Fold this protein.
Amino acid sequence: MREDRIVSTLRRIIGLAMILTGIGGGAVQLAKGGASAPSVQASAAVAQAADSPQIENAKLETRTAGASLDATIREIAGSAEKAEWLGYRVDEVIGERGVCCDNNWNSGNCGTCWLEKENGRASGTTHTDGSVKLEGTRQLIVLYRLEAKQVVTIRVASDDCTLDAGGLPFIWLTGVKAPESVALLATYVHGADFEGHGEHKIGHGALTAIALHADASADRALESFVTPEQREELRRQAAFWMGAARGKAGLSALQHMAKTDASSDVRAHVAFALSVSHETGALEEMIRMAHDDTSSHVRGQALFWLAQKAGKEAVGTITAAIDNDPDTDVKKKAVFALSQLPKDEGVPKLIEVAQTNHNREVRKQAMFWLGQSNDPRALQFFEKVLTQ
């Protein structure tokens, strides 16, 4: 209780001092730092942090990025024996949703993002009053966790997030240029192991951050990640972000990959990336892949994602594959794609295939997915077949 009274008294003193000097708005942030008396350096840090997002539970310091962002971060990291955070702001690519904490996409106010928990890595989000920023350029916070004199984690958060640094030092950089940010992040993408699973690896965090930069340099970086000499996992991940975040430039790159990438696994992932693109032309490229790709695996994946994305518009391509594709496995995947359509489109087509297709395996597949549909029309069809 005595400590609570001391904290309360200090907060009142600090608030009064700030008001008298004309910068009372900074008192809230400083008061959250703890019970110790404010130093001149701490007060200056709050005053300089006007450009920073809402940062709580942190020992906040503001610095200028200087002539080289790379050199600045390497210098700061080189003296970071213990864990600390560094962050800066860039314009975020235009989209329907904010990134909130890492990939916890949101369409409204982010709330609080905890950068630290017991294991030093976990994060969480609580939503505030649900207010939504409707105007102005959306901005992205790029975050680096430093420890043992190196960058150990790269994360992103929406500008409307409140960042809780878990009591660690937090250096906020001002004056960061987007092309320099992309160039620095690209070094972590190229230097990271992208094989296997690992969305929390430093390379994945850097790739996500690049994809969300609203700058043409991000498009060029992503295109460099999908050249033939790059690892397959990197090409797959970059393809996803081209579809999810990079608009027309991303679609153009995906169309090129769909026709030229030597890996059928990568091309199959391109079909998925096209399915998350909102650009006109993505659907047409998926249809082309379903018709023309040399790999039955890719054609099957294109059919599946067509069904997820296009609904009625995909019916013609799917039924054409059932009728004409030379590979029975592709025909069966096309039948499955019919089962993924809205029932008013999918169920009648499945019944038609089950009744009329000349391939016994295809008819069996249609019967199976009709059985999974729980649709009254499927039950009526089965009754008719069984009573004949």
Observations:
- The first helix runs from residue 2 to 20.
- The radius of gyration is 27 Å.
- Residues 41 and 370 are 71 Å apart (CA to CA).
- The chain has 17 helices and nine strands.
